């Protein structure tokens, strides 16, 4: 089945009528939207507050690095999700985040607010809220029917992308109207609403044997199972790395990792760049434009699914880089935001087609570990990009760093085009499980 037919099938309006009958999913979905909205408000507010308190891009880069480092530890949540009731876990995360939001206005009220307090809060609150997503994913099969899972996941990913883009823009406007400190106070309310929604959830148990006298035996079985999984993890990891090393995925991943450093450097110091345009409103608009462009790209990716992935990757990344560079040179916030928005459309297209090609080309037994490795290695350098962006902006200025971010996309496109392996990758509609075997060295 092609990407077009999969997307069309997943997004049919009549395919979501089951939501009207599933109150548990409604509460879960609403809570996730609200907490994601609050998380986006918090991120924009925190990054702007760091810039406002210091007027030093180095600290902005450090804040971005702390956010991205925190996200690297989400793999530790698995055992926690297995042993703690998910409803309690979700409620606790919202309570901690809501209280964390109140620390900033309280500190400001007592005149003890400092950048070091913000830098301390950023990784803690980021770590806490990141648990919401894997926790909800783990119970989704228990609250929707098996045939409804693809649509439920599609609804989560599509809607939340729009929430991020909208929240970024709203946060910028709110900061300009009520200030960054007041935004934290307001944001505590969003986590309170999400807490109430999660508190009223009724999530079915995994099995009936989890209750009563069978609970102890089940826990022992789960403990033994986790130990076995830990031992197996090393073997699986080595097999995944060995597989990637023998295919075209390795040079693609190497290029993406290096490019991610440049892009993250540019997006992290966006508060500094935005302040030169028109302050916090510009920051929210620019971050919203980046998110909306990526979202549009994912939505229209089916339009180019019949083109070879190598062509899409080469042309798309070079186009994205040129548009990004143009946005930095353009006069005025409106043109800059429009060009940044357009620059992310080919990025969103490539992301969808790249993942779809991997899903079609990697055998099922290896797909999970290959996807995990790709996410881990591509995300592993994001903190480096954030930190380098802050250091670079502090030493040579914000504009050279922003131009470098766009240049990294152009170079990535050239790299893809010069690689015969990448250039020869077929369209996603022609991908099969012989694809990466044929590129093995």
Keywords:
20 helices; 2 domains; 441 residues; 80% helix; Growth Hormone, Chain: A; mainly alpha
Overview in brief:
It contains 20 helices and no strands.
Helical run tally: 20
Tertiary shape: globular
Task: Quote the average pLDDT.
Answer: 83
Judged by helices, strands and strand pairing, the structural class is mainly alpha
Sheet with most strands: none
The tally of domains stands at 2
The CATH superfamily of the largest domain appears as: MFS general substrate transporter like domains
- The topology string of helices and strands comes to HHHHHHHHHHHHHHHHHHHH
What fold name goes in the CATH topology slot of the largest domain?
Growth Hormone, Chain: A
Helix content: over 70%
Rg, alpha carbons: 22 Å
The CATH class of the largest domain, by name, is Mainly Alpha
Strand percent estimate: under 5%
């Amino acid at each position: 089945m092609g990407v077009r037919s999969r997307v069309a099938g997943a997004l049919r309006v009549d395919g979501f009528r089951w939501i009207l009958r599933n109150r548990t999913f409604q509460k879960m979905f609403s809570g996730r939207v609200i907490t994601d909205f609050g998380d986006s408000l918090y991120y924009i507010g925190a990054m702007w507050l760091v810039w406002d308190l210091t007027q030093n891009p180095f600290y902005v880069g450090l804040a971005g690095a702390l956010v991205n480092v925190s996200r690297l530890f989400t793999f530790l949540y698995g055992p926690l999700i297995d042993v703690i009731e998910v409803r309690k876990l979700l409620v606790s995360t919202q309570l901690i985040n809501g209280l964390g939001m109140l620390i900033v206005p309280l500190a400001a009220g007592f005149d003890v607010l400092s950048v070091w307090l913000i830098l301390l809060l950023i990784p803690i609150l980021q770590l806490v809220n990141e648990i919401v997503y894997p926790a909800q994913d783990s119970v989704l099969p228990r609250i929707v029917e098996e045939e409804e899972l693809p649509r439920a996941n599609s609804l989560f990913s599509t809607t939340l992308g729009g929430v991020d883009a909208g929240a970024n823009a709203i946060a910028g406007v709110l900061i300009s109207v009520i200030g960054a400190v007041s935004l934290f106070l307001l944001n505590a309310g969003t986590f309170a609403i999400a807490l109430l929604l999660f508190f009223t959830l009724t999530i079915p148990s995994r099995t009936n044997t989890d209750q009563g006298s069978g609970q102890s035996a089940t826990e022992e079985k789960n403990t033994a199972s986790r130990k076995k999984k830990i031992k197996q993890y090393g073997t699986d990891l080595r097999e995944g790395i060995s597989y990637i090393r023998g295919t075209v995925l390795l040079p693609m991943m190497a290029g993406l990792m290096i490019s991610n450093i440049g892009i993250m450097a540019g997006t992290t110091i966006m508060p500094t760049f935005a302040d030169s345009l028109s302050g916090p409103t510009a920051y929210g608009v620019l971050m919203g434009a980046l998110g909306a462009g990526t979202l549009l790209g994912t939505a229209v990716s089916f339009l180019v699914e019949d083109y070879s992935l190598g062509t899409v990757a080469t042309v798309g990344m070079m186009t994205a880089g040129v548009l990004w560079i143009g946005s930095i040179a353009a006069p005025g916030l409106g043109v800059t935001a429009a060009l940044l928005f357009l620059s992310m459309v080919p990025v969103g297209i490539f992301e969808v087609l790249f993942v779809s090609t991997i899903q079609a080309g990697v055998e099922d037994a290896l797909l999970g570990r290959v996807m995990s490795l790709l996410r881990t290695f591509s995300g592993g350098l994001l903190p480096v990009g954030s930190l380098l962006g802050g250091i670079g902006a502090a030493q040579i200025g914000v504009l050279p760093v922003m131009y470098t971010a766009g240049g990294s996309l152009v170079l990535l496109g050239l790299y893809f085009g010069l690689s015969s392996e990448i250039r020869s990758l077929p369209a996603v509609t022609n991908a099969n499980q012989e694809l990466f075997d044929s590129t093995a060295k």
